[in-house]
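hiii so um. not sure if this is the right channel but i have a protein structure encoded as tokens and i wanna go backwards to a sequence. like what aa goes where. can anyone help
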């Protein structure tokens, strides 16, 4: 189990750090520009998503390119499609609930309830991550053999 936890941390922790920074910056910029906590909650959610999924897609493409290169094969659009499909399988169900309902609601209400914008955004992100990672990690583990194995092409 220790090895699995290390694997998950290597996969998700760098993306989480980037996402946290993007979430805070996106929410703060939206709040400054619109003075709307709703806009800040939505901007923080989507800025974090772009950073998070952009990083993971980049990592997956890099790994697939290395696997193809090791086999003297080109990295094709078809393989890129597999990278995108693997992310959709890994995060699809968790992401729909997270981005459309759970995370924006927490990012809207927690800063109000705590009386601190920054602390509320950080706590909202951490709480939403809990509901996000359980189905995401399960889907990741199920998708590894079929969608992330580039040696069978």
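sure thing!! here u go:
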């Amino acid at each position: 189990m220790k090895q699995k936890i290390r694997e998950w941390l290597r996969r998700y922790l760098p993306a989480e750090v980037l996402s946290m920074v993007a979430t805070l910056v996106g929410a703060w910029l939206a709040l400054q520009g619109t003075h709307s906590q709703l806009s800040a909650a939505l901007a923080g959610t989507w800025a974090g998503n772009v950073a998070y999924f952009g990083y993971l897609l980049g990592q997956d493409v890099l790994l697939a390119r290395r696997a193809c290169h090791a086999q003297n094969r080109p990295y094709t659009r078809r393989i890129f499609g597999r990278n995108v499909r693997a992310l959709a399988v890994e995060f699809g169900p968790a992401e729909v609930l997270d981005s459309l309902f759970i995370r924006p609601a927490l990012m809207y209400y927690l800063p109000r309830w705590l009386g601190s914008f920054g602390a509320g955004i950080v706590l909202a992100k951490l709480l939403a991550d809990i509901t996000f990672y359980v189905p995401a990690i399960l889907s990741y583990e199920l998708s590894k053999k079929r969608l992330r194995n580039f040696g069978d092409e």
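oh and The chain has a mean pLDDT of 90.
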